[in-house]
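Hi support team,

I submitted a single chain yesterday and got back a structure, but I'm not sure I'm reading the token output correctly. Could someone confirm the output below corresponds to the sequence I sent? I've pasted both exactly as they appear in my results page.

Thanks,
R.
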Amino acid sequence: MNKFDDLIQTFNLLSKYKGRFLGAIIGFLVSLLIINFGIILAIFISICIGIGYYIGFRYDNKQDFKDIINDIFPHNE
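Hi R., thanks for writing in. Yes, this is the structure output for that exact sequence:
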């Protein structure tokens, strides 16, 4: 086999087990955060990443930024 076939085979394996792979990567990154910054700061960083992911996900779905902010912080009427 050449290197290209090995690369395709690796991508096929990763796509088959993408949840496990992503879980392992996220676990590794969280462990690095905890080791470097401590548990409280790691939780804060994880929350900020989650909020950023949520806003980015909504933006990718072509939602207006004002609608995103209004969904997060609704008006009290």
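A quick pointer for reading it: The two ends are 67 Å apart (CA to CA). Let us know if anything else looks off.

Best,
Support desk
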